[in-house]
Amino acid sequence: MLRSSSPHTLDGVLWAKAASLAALRQYYALPKKGKPQGCESTVLAAFLLSFPQNPLNPTVLSLATGTKCLGAARLARRALLRLIYAEIGTDNPPSWLVASGTDGRWRLKDGHQLHLYITQLPCGVMPVPPSPLEVRREQLDTMANGYSDVGFVQRKPGRGDTTLLVSCFDKITRWCAVGIQGALLSHILEPLYLSTITIGQLPGGAPDGFCIESNVVKVLCARLSCLSRKFPDPFKTNKPLFFEAPIPPKEFQQTSGDIPPLTCG
User: Fold this and answer.
1) What domain count does the chain have?
2) Of 226, 183, 138, which Cα lies nearest the Cα of 153?
3) Residue 64 and residue 62: Cα distance in Å, rounded?
């Protein structure tokens, strides 16, 4: 646990367990098709919603698995956006979104919070801030409403030649600046920011000298500090709390050593 309390002033250990249990419970409720078989493994990511009445009983809004360039976190976000589009377009909008004013926009209901759970460390987490060895880029991506940032993007390993695709951690950094809703939904939805990011522990323990606080939190803060402090309204710099969840089941565990992992298709 990195801090003594979650956004709900509850013990972070309890929250990490609650988030991981909710995500895994939803995963195991799904059909067998597409899940790892035998020695296969995968990465699970889920977006959760907590409620002020019972914050330790979060609801899973979306989840996905993935191990290739289009990782689990991005797939889970894509599913979340589809859910928002579908529910806003009905006569009975979701109870966790409320009208933001008279301009037809929506926002997250007071007291409700969004969270991300990942069974493994997101790719792209580095022990130090971006170095000159990384590729300098003029623009990571066109952000919501035409806003963009300038910074670094690292090489991402692939099955063939290395690529210059942004890593999972790059995407998380972007979500901390402009929210997870994307450019199109930004026209009708105020930015949706994550309150916590919970990551499953490594089965064999963290490598010597590695801890989430130095390898994730400090790097994220360093990246966000490079962004312009003059964010266009209603965007802001959001720094979610990070927590370590219990070791995930074997099919989600990150393998170590020289043997290539057998990933689920």
Assistant:
1) 1
2) 138
3) 7
